[in-house]
Design a protein that fits this description.
It is built from 14 helices and eight strands. By secondary structure, the protein is of the alpha/beta class. It folds into two domains: 2-238, Aldolase class I (TIM Barrel, Alpha-Beta Barrel), CATH 3.20.20.70; 245-313, Bacteriocin As-48, Chain A, CATH 1.20.225. 47% of the residues are buried.
Length: 314
Amino acid sequence: MRVILAPMEGVVDDHMRDILSAINPFDLVVTEFVRVVNQLLPDKVFYKLCPELLNHGLTPSGTPVRVQLLGQEPEWMAQNAIRAVELGSHGVDANFGCPAKTVNKSKGGAVLLQYPENVHNIVKAMRDAVPSHQPVTAKIRLGYEDKSLFMENALAVYEAGASELAIHARSKTDGYKPPAYWEYITEVRKRLPIPIIANGEIWNAADAQRCMAITGCDSVMIGRGAISLPNLGDTIKTGAVPYTWLQTLSLLMAYTEKELSGRKSDYYPSRIKQWFSYLNRQYPEADALFRELRVYKTTEEIVNVLQQTHQSLS
C-alpha cells in the first residue's frame, strides 16, 4: 500500500509538507503546481515553490518530493519537466485536475480534459524529454463538465508513456461535493496496466480501505483529509490512533513557528484560518476556537489566542 500527499494549491506548501511528512509515513508528496506558460522558468521559481530541491528533493524528514507542472504547451511543459528533475525532483507530475476558474480560463488544469489529444501530447512531450529512470506522472479528474471522456483521458495519459496516473474521482463541475465516484477509477484500473492512484473523499482509514476495495488500487492520494486529520496517512498505513485535539493544536503551534520565521507575517492570518476550515470537520474544539479567532486580523492577535489555548490544555 502506498499513501501519497496530494498537491493542494494554496494549502500544501513546503511548511505544510514538512509538518505532515514528519508525522506520516508518506511514500511521496507532490508540490503545488508550477505554472508553465511560454518559457523555461528560472531555477529560483522551482526553489521558491519546492525548497526541498535544495535537500536532494526530500522533505526534512526524508520523504521524496515530486514537482507538479501545470500548462498547456507541450514543448514548454517538457523543457520545464527536464529542469525540475535536473534540480532534484523525484520525477515530475502534470496537472490536469485543477478546477480553479482563473487557471481554466487560461487553458490550464481541468479544462484540458475536454481535449484528450492535448493531454496526450503534453504527457508524451514530457515523457520523451525526461530521462527514462525518472517517473512522469499525471493527475486528472473524471472530466470537465461531465464524465463522458474519463476513459479517453486515462488512455491518453497511458499511451503517452506515463509511469502512473492519479485520478480524483469527480469532474470539474462536481468540484469537491460528495460523493466521489470511485467506480470510474475501478474501470480505469482494470483497463490500464500502469499503477492507478485513487483520490477523493478519503477522510479516515475506513474510507481508504473502502476506496481500495472498490477500485482495486493499492495506492491512495489524500488531500483535504490530510489537513483535517493531520496523521491520517499514519492511520491508513499503520493503524495509528487519530491525533487528539491537543496533539493537533501542538502541530498548529509548530506550523506557526515555521510560518513566522520564514515568511512575512501578513501571510499568516489567512493561512491559519484556512487550516481551521479543514480542522473543523474533525475536531469540535477547532470550530469553537475558530469562532474566537476569526474576528482577529493581525498575526499577533491570532498567535496570542493560540498560545493561550495551547498553554491552558497542556
